[in-house]
Amino acid sequence: MTQSSSTPSSLFFDRHDFTWSEVIIGLLVLLAVHLTTYYNYLLFHNFSELFSVIIAITIFIIAINCWKSIQNQYVLFVGVAYLFIGFIDVMHALSYKGMGIFKDYDYYAPQFWIAARTMESISMVIGFYFLGTGKKLSKNWLMIMFLIATTLLVSSITYFKTFPECFVVGQGLTPFKKIMEYLISGTLLVSLVMLLKRKQFFDVRVLRLIAWSIVTTVIMEMCFTQYKLVGMNDAMNQIGHLLKIVSFYFIYKAVVVTGLTDPINLLFRRLKDNEADLLQAQQLARLGRWEWILATNECLFSKEVLQFFELPDNTRYSLNDVFARLQSDDQIAVQAAIQRLQQGGAPFELKVRISDPERHRFAQLRGAAMRDDLGQVIRIAGTLQDISDEHRLQDALSAAQDKEKFELLLQTAGDGIHLLDAEGNVVEVNDMFCNMLGYSRDELLKMNVAQWDANFLPEALREKLKENFSQRNLFETQHRRKNGAIIDVEISAKAIQYGGVPVLWNASRDITERKHAEERMRRTNAELEQFSYAVSHDMRQPLRMVSSYLQLLEMELGETLDDEKRSYFNYAVDGAKRIDRMLEALLDYSRIGRSADPFILVDCRGALDESMRFLQPAILEAGAEVNIAGEWPTIFASRDELVRLFQNLIGNAVKYRIAGREVKISVISKVDRGEWQLSIEDNGVGINPEQINRLFKVFQRLQTRDEYEGTGIGLALCRKIIEHHHGEISAKSDGEGKGSQFCVRLPVNQAADASAQGFVA
Amino acid sequence: MNKPSPSFVVLLVEDESSDAVLVRWAFNKNQIQVDFRHLTDGYDALDFLQRATLTHQDAPRPDLILLDLNMPSMSGLELLTKIKMLPVLASIPVVILSTSYAMPDVLASRNLGAADYFTKPMDIHQLVDTIRIVCERWVAPQLLIKQASGGE
């Protein structure tokens, strides 16, 4: 695109080139400078030259500093030239008649004037040589060339004095001066023509400014051919000087426009072009764009974004305004992603959904951070693509498949399924639920939950409904059947989408039986406690009488008893004591699995260590070597029972040793596929393989009491503990005298199940 | 301990006479001579103790009370509570001698202020040991204090 077409203003004039304040200040400055002539013409001259010199230097400074952004070589060339023109103008001002600085000759000033103007006009022409060449001007080279030219001019005037005279006292302006002024004007007009011919290289405003500057300079030159006396209040001279300020100012403006204003505009123009392209692409892809400028906290959202969020596009929105329309979890995700971007995170891509569940609107949201040269995040921008249609299609497809599955699930479920709306009205029920309440499906479809719930007060029921919609729930309540009977139920409730509407999925499970069983269990447990206390106390009392008095009797009889009779007493006492121990063991056995304590997480190794402390005296006495190895899990269990288990199994291994044989026991633990495997192996008396199935029964003994003391309940107790923990126990032996191995297997990862059982028991 | 004072009064509250006989026998077996009193009922014991506070002739103030827990009319724990509620009696050490080894009984006794708790053993030799320990803990030290304070 050419520059002239982008700025549709006149080649000659555009009132936007100057602001009103600029014009007013400019006129005031000119007026002020003009007024000084009433005081002293020299003062006027100095002021006017000072202004134009200041402008000339400013032109140079801007040109040199905007070297990179000024694409126009001509402007650069002229910009540099003005430094030297300005310098010669300074010489001109300093040598002006009456300044008293150059004492040898009074009329250097017109010579410097001609020199400066010559340089100015020639520069305006030569500049075109560099225009459009595309090669970069060398700053240094340009400066050196101008420096040489200036030195030659200045020295030819002040030192060599070869520069022709311009003013002769008595004669006035010399013909040389006048001819030079015309030549200069001619050169300037040439440059003006060249400028207009090469207008395609210039921004129209720059073109205008330079052209006006040339025109002003030409007029100024004409003025200087007319005046008669130097140093006198000559109107033409005055106008010429004022016009010089104006013409310099035009050049200054041209440099500012190309060096400062234009590059910025150009940047924006390119951005605009890109934006236009993007906009077109976006509209095709239904891609929305959003942007957040951190410095100003300004947010921009394209039409597509606002459309997606169903926001009118006549207001400005903040990020929060817009993203607040997302589902709450999406909101959090987007916020987090944007925060990460601010901290320098990678671009994100999220699938988001509008908070209104009724409206199936999905979008793909992308975002990235834009940084400045210092790496600071300045903008966060991204796109939003509406993907609702794809989603609707997918939903429709899966809904068709799901509907079949849903029906199947509803009818084959073992629980009484009933779907309720927010008011508790029935939306759907399965056959099981109909049977449960004794109503037909048609009857139920017209009912409300309040008509069969027999537990909650109306207010509490409403609360419960609301609660269940917001979170998954498991609770107990009661249903009233059609015939008035009350059944205890446990309901698992969860909010689901059904036909695009949120409903509450309720699965009622009849727990009347379970409730009764629990009640029975509680009563049995209480009775058992009573019973076991009675046994431990009331039955032991007479037993103690028997044993104690038999012993007392034996002592009192003392000398009169022979050894045989004494042994009769001993048998009797021993029998009584044994009954006592068996009672104790039996009580222990009955207590397994009836403890009121729920299962807790037990470190199996810790339980083993505790049992080893109890066993220590027996181990020391037997001189047994116990090796413990393997991986020990943490499981949900009754800690006391686990300790008892170890105590019995390892205690047995110590007890049933072969006299004279070194006792070696190995305890190995292993966790394999969710199962804890424990092996306790000894080199003791072993077991007759035919007898193994008797091993775990109550009061069964495979060894004579004479050899091994015991109640015959230890292994039965172990079996009961293992069963309580849903495991298995088994024994292996190669035969009598060949040692034995006890293996325990317990589930590890069914912890939750075990704990639930523990609560019930 | 070999020269115990008959003035040291031990009150045994025990419904089973057979057990009382064994306890008394165990004291003798340990060659500890004490003024041994036995009552079979909690109310009798309370009556005795109340009279004892008035320094009644027939009821010397016990220096040690041995208490069974499981008794028909008033349980041992009930009696223990009442003894500890009366300031004049509260300082008398009460040692529980019970058949029960159930933890709730042990804990309740401790909480109500029993000085010690022993389970009556099956074996009579162990009973002798138990009574010896009771005396070492609760008779000998108090006897020394009683003598030092210039008692009878």
Describe the structure using short key phrases:
heterodimer, A: 761 residues, alpha+beta, five-stranded antiparallel beta sheet, disordered N terminus, B: 152 residues, alpha/beta, five-stranded parallel beta sheet, 7 helices
Kindly describe this structure:
The complex is a heterodimer of chains A (761) and B (152). By secondary structure, chain A is α+β, with helices and mostly antiparallel strands. Chain A is 54% helix and 17% strand. In chain A, the strands form five sheets. Chain A has a five-stranded antiparallel beta sheet. Chain A has a five-stranded antiparallel beta sheet with strand order 9-8-12-11-10. A five-stranded mixed beta sheet of chain A has the order 14-16-17-19-18, covered by helices on one side. In chain A, helix 2 runs antiparallel to helix 9 and helix 3 (41-65) packs antiparallel against helix 4 (73-94). Chain B has a five-stranded parallel beta sheet with strand order 2-1-3-4-5, with helices on both faces. The longest helix of chain B is centred in the C-terminal third of the chain and has 15 residues, at 124-138. Chain B is globular, with a radius of gyration of 15 Å. The two termini of chain B are 17 Å apart. Chain A binds chain B through residues 533, 536-538, 540-541, 543-545, 547-549, 551-552, 555, 573, 576-577, 580, and chain B through 16, 18-19, 22, 25, 70, 99-102, 120-125, 127.
Compact description:
The complex is a heterodimer of chains A (761) and B (152). Chain A is α+β, with helices and mostly antiparallel strands.
Number of helices of chain B: 7
Average the pLDDT over all residues of chain A and give the rounded result: 83
Which structural class is indicated by helix and strand composition of chain B? alpha/beta
Backbone CA Rg of chain A? 55 Å
Structural class of chain A: alpha+beta
Largest sheet of chain A: 5 strands, antiparallel
Largest interface, chains and sizes: A-B, 19 and 17 residues
Radius of gyration of chain B: 15 Å
Strand order of the largest sheet of chain B: 2-1-3-4-5
